[in-house]
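=== Structure Prediction Worksheet ===
Name of assembly: unnamed complex
Input type: mixed (protein and possibly other molecules)
Chain count: two
Listed entries:
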Amino acid sequence: MALPPPDPRFVLRGTTAAVHTLHFSCGGQEPDFPILFSGSESGFVHVWNLKTRRVETALDGHGRKSVYWVETMGAKDRLLSQGRDQRICLWDLAEGRTSVTDSVFTENVGFCRCSLLKVAQERWLMAMAAKSLEEVQVLELPSKTSVCTLKPEVGAKLGMPMCLKLWQLDTGSQPWLLAGYEDGSVSLWNLSMGKVWSQLVCHQEPVMSLDFDSEKAKGISGSSEKVLSIWSLNEQQNLQVHKTHELINSGISDITIRSDKKILATAGWDHRIRIFGWKKMKPLAVLDYHTATVHCVAFSDHRNPSERLLAAGSKDHRISVWSIYAQT
Amino acid sequence: ELDKMQVLRLCSTKWPVCFISIPDLGHLFSVLKYLNRWYKEDGVRFFSVVPSDRVRDNKSCVEPALALLEQLVRAGGLAELLWEQCEPRAGGPCADVLLGLLVGLPDRVGNRLRGRAPGALLPRGYFALLGGAVLQALSSLPGGSDCSVSFVSQVVGKVCVHGGQKEILGVLVPQLTELTQSDCIWQRICWRLVESVPDRWMEAVLLGFVQNALSRLLGNLVVKNKKAQFVMTQKLLLLQYGYTTAVLQNVLGYLSLDNLRRALLIKVLQELLETWGSSSAVRHSPVEQQLYISKAILICLSHLKESEIESCRQELLTNMMAGVKCHLDSSLPQIRRLGMIVAESVSVRINTDGPVLKFQVTEAALPGELEAVEKPQTATQGVPEEESDTELDSDDDLVPYDMSEDKEIKSTKAPVYIRDCIEVLTGSDDVHKWDATIKALEGLIRKNPAATREVSVELAKILLHVEEKSCIEGFAVLRQKAQVAVLTTDPIPVAQYLTSQFYSLNYSLRQRMDILDVLVLAAQEMSSPKFYGKNKPSNAQKPCIQLLPESSSSKGWRQIVDERIKSKTRRLQFSLGQGQSQAETDAGPNEFNSVAGHFFFPLIQNFDRPLSTFDLLGEDHFVLGRLVHTLAILMYLAASVVTPMGKALLEFVWALRFHTDAYVRQGLLSCISSVLLSVPAAHLLEDVAEVLVETRCWLADVVEKDPDGDCRRLALQNLLLMENLKKKLETAPS
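=== Predicted Assembly ===
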């Protein structure tokens, strides 16, 4: 008899709005405390102290418009947040400051989360949906200079980009961008050439989320359908379907592979978090705690693997934090 | 060397003493030889000496004689005796006497000594030694073609009949099995040995042999010997059923191993199937026997070849079809299952090209023993596939958690009002809505008793007729729960409706049984102490607005009284304290009491009035069985105010007591238990004493004669209950 699934380690309450995005920052040394950033529908970014499990600060920078992406740039005191006010803000949180030092006006009205990739010391690339509906723009941070604009071919009819993932094989090699589109296809963009390298129709519905494992050259995407699609890149960097995994209930809003590439978590519209083994997509656990759609899942970046956590934010205003398969 | 006259003289007078004086064993045997010849000529004295009159009172004579006898038996005297009887010219009238003496020796010694006999002369030891002696005699058979083993066979046969079967064959059979393995002379000797056993003892010998490698030991005995044939093909298979599966496999395997015998095997299968398919046998023989016969059929089938089955396909088919019908007709689930399993196996074998019977028998439902029978067949079909999927790169170190709770989520909203539910159930085409309604209905009914009461009968009617629209999981259970909820909420009108429908036209058996189930479940719920207060009709029936203070004050009233009682009562904390608290939680009136009559009497009224579609006393005896069980439960749950019910039920039982269906009889016996348990003893004596006396005779009869084990047990329990009742009444002051 299999063990019953675990309960959450703890639950963070108090955002008073649906939680749309989560990001851990736990890699610091003592006396730094582990931090979880959460972006909520009310426009606040909450900074949670995971030691006391309380809100340290609540950042209000998006005019009470929903925040749907947060990410740190290097250290935990430099935070990027993207909001429905069409702005991406860079926060300076050092020494207790809570000020927006810089911002980008995207002019994009979609829900596409940005993707950030560190390409060199103090140099990042950020992919974001641009003003024009089908376009993706890649900026260099912190200089904000535009690297390229990725336009699908005329008549491709991909629709809006829904999710983005910047990656490179190893530091210094050329960066690639994976983008999931409204028509259900996933495209691999070559940034230096500025054009689509390979394309694959993975879903019938818009791609809601994708994640990619550059070591195994294998990725996974989810949509509003009942299937997870797993695809891979062959030697010629062409996308091909690896397999699909049937789900019980339809709708996936977020997928995250843990950094050690052993397991992955999905956030489901059926209120459940699902854990799979990444190698063979073996279903491992179904975490049923939330009472509304789960919007996002995130794994922590603890240095000590056994401390690793999984957090999920939901429409029911709660963030559940789990410790699952931390030992393996 | 002693001469004959010396021995004779000594033996006729004080023989034991003379034996003691014989200096060594060599002498003993020479004496024995003389003795043998002597009793051949002059009649027998040797073994009969021990209990003879002459030494009866003389202890000093008996004990040495006994010692001598024991020595003789241990030293191989028996083998020598047997051997001599195998000689061609042996035999004659004294052989019979010798046979009797040889076999009866332990009894004679035992009678004389009353338990003080030495081990070698007790039945167990003696017969084992005799078995050894038989082997020894056979191994050195006198030469010549005309030697005879018939005396030895007679010894073996007679010992088997006299209760030494296990001991003598326990020695003989394993040795013979080993010896015959490679030696064909031994094989012939063995066949002769068994063939020469007289008919009257044949059965006992054969039954001892059936555990072993029969074919080698018996040869074609069944073909040559009528008696053996009868035992092997009739008695072992059709008349008795206490043997293990291994014995069955042995016997049928033996029949299948030789072409001469295979004809018998087909005959056996036909006879088995005939018995299996006979409705009288299905109804009257115990379940164990039917299981035994089913096993035999399956084994037979596995031994027979295609061509052999072909030769008698038509008869097999006829018998099988008859059998399926009467098995499925049975009200005992085991029998139905047996019928399905056997019919499936038979039909697979006889319909090689045509359609094959296939029942929905789950693997788990297979009775364990049958599984064991089927296993060897499947095991030969091939080694189970090994998992080729041995990829090292797997998620094996990640142990999954239980994911059984991961089910589909339905988004349709369930109705909130009872009347909405009625609307959906009667007219809606929206399957999702219908599903949600069925799921929500029970909760709604329980939450809104007042609203339910307004439409209770209508709701009961809808629920009785509603049919599954979509493949919703647990539909039957959900519907039943809702029905129970309606019935408990508004017991009298709904019970009246349901009981009247039970006997009306145009219902399926399933619906009628649903009615019975619902009545029982509701009765159970209403009679349980938890029910009280959860669903108080008095509160909800009042259409007035309930004032908050009123309910709180009534609560306060209760509390105050309780507290006062507490303060005024001195409690003995030890032992009593526990009982008290338990009584507090359990107390509460039995709500079912007051309405039991509405459940009970309409059901008992019309059982003997057949309708065109529903004949309880005829072929719908399965429903009758359920009805009887239901009545028993209702009676039991009604408890203590039920004298008229008890009386009616006893009369009902009396009318049906010789019903042929075991399930019905079980129900009747439960009815009697319920009456005995529920009706107060004093009332029983007053009102139904005569019926009880009659019932008691019937019960005693059932205990002895009923073919069904459960019936016998229930009857015995009833008798015990009656006995207890009697004791109670006797001890109570009159």
